[in-house]
Amino acid sequence: MIEIENISKSFEGKQVLTDISGRFDQGKTNLIIGASGTGKTVLLKCMVGLVQPDAGSVFYNKRDFTHADRDLKTEIRREIGMLFQGGALFDSKNVEENVMFPLNILTNMTAGDKLDRVNFCLTRVGLENVNKKMPSEISGGMKKRVGIARAIVNSSQYLFCDEPNSGLDPQTAIMIDNLIQEITREYEITTVVVTHDMNSVMEIGEYVMFLHRGEKVWEGSSDNISQAEVKELQDFIFANKLMRTIQAR
Fold this sequence. Notes:
By secondary structure, this protein is α/β, with parallel strands linked by helices. It is built from 8 helices and 10 strands. It has a 6-stranded mixed β-sheet with strand order 6-7-8-3-9-10, with helices on both faces. A 4-stranded antiparallel β-sheet has the order 2-1-4-5, with helices on one face. Strand 9 and strand 10 (215-220) form a beta hairpin. The radius of gyration is 18 Å and the shape is globular.
């Protein structure tokens, strides 16, 4: 479980996040949604320690990550896996080397054990026999699956996904959503997905936090989001549906 309490952040006098609190439960796909520029990615960066909030705290299973000492922060970071927007694979490394990278820097595993773990994770995301392929030789959807394999290779307890469906066709996007949810439930991971895709919300949104202009204005699940009496949220849903309609023409 991850809890955030009263997170605020500004850059050069511009308020980006204001007093945001919430809880992301273990074994669920937790989504942070909102239009571009609403602070979703900044909140994610605060949660993983890439940005220090001006106020507030982030707790990993009751451990205060924001104000932790170096040793505790290192311990928690070892438990975090990240799926970056676009996959963020190393172009100069093949698939096997990309997935093995966290094991090389975070563990003392033998070479054989590392390879076994890499092959297990690649098989789990449906990518057998692609170890030696370069990122330039695989599709966008495959890159995302390699990114997921890399994110879980270190037996992560927490999985963060930044716009995992960006640049994907609808069918592949659904496959990635389902894979994220399957892995979350199978390994009882605490998963946080940042997205603006309402299809993802409806497919896997077990907990949804909606941000508007840096503030949390609604939280709930995909089951009750359409009935939410929040104008900003309904405007967001309508705009998302309109964009989907235009793209389908």
